[in-house]
Amino acid sequence: MRTSQIGIPERWLTVVMSAVFVVCWSSGFIGAKLGAAEASVLTILMWRFLVIAIVLGGVIGVMWRRQQVPSMTRGQFGLQLVIGVLSQCGYTVTVYWAISLGVSTGTTALIDGVQPLVVAALAGPLLGAVTHGKQWLGLAVGAAGVVLVTWSDATSSAGAPWWAYLVPLLGMASLVVATFLERRVTDAPPPTVILTIHCGASAVIFTAASVAAGVAVPPAAGAFWLSIAWLTVLSTLGGYGLYWVLLRRSGVTSVNSLMFLMPPVTAVWGTAMYGEPFTWATALGLAMACGATWVVNREAAPPDATPSISKERVVAAP
After folding, report:
1. What is the pTM of this model?
2. Which of 46, 302, 313, 315 is buried deepest, with most CB atoms within 10 A?
3. Number of domains comprising the chain
4. Which residues make beta-bridge pairs with 3?
5. 81 falls within a domain
6. pLDDT of 114-126, one tens digit each?
């Protein structure tokens, strides 16, 4: 069994990183609720990305002086900008927008939960990769678990216009497109540089939108700044950062199967932190999602095996 540079077996390191990723990505829903009563969606998103962009900009400045930042062509920089706009702006704003229109968080999570199936279905024709039979079974079980967890919320949503239900679908599609674009990058810069570009683009877009809407001034309430710190450290650095690290480490199907765990983990977290209801359906859905994630990742080919969806590298199509 191969070991990492810190002496931990590679497989166990991946497991630990995956667990941290699930917790951090799920924290986005919890952190957003902390500041929702104090500020608008645009204000929260603006300061979330503005703070992290400034911090990362300082880190890149230090790396630049030490000549640790590789040179990038305009094409490379432009592609990372596009990936950042799709995966951050496109995903976050559509999720928050759908909820503000009256679509329940459960329905939004349900639509986002379809992402692993979409990725698995497109991986073959777009990446020339293989999703194995048991992986498909795991993906189906995971989707069923997500449906079970979010069904009550989905059926109780009322008052939202019909087109509002397409909004989270656009967010899910935005993240899927960004994921496949990233998989076509063969000479990507270090993760810190990538995250800085992505967060910088999001900060510019959300700041411009907030100024235009007249909501750029942040409230002084402690709950708002607690949510910003929460979203910056856990959701952006932890969740978003680990998403791209694990994508290169484990592959598209394995990483996206972890998305099945987000709705049930968020439900458990919400119960513990906000006293939200935790029913038998939530418990069963959590068990199904955990089982599905284990099946999908267990069936992924090992690093030295024949290339599959979990490890393949591709060249951009002409």
Report:
1. 0.75
2. 46
3. 1
4. 9
5. yes
6. 666 676 666 665 5
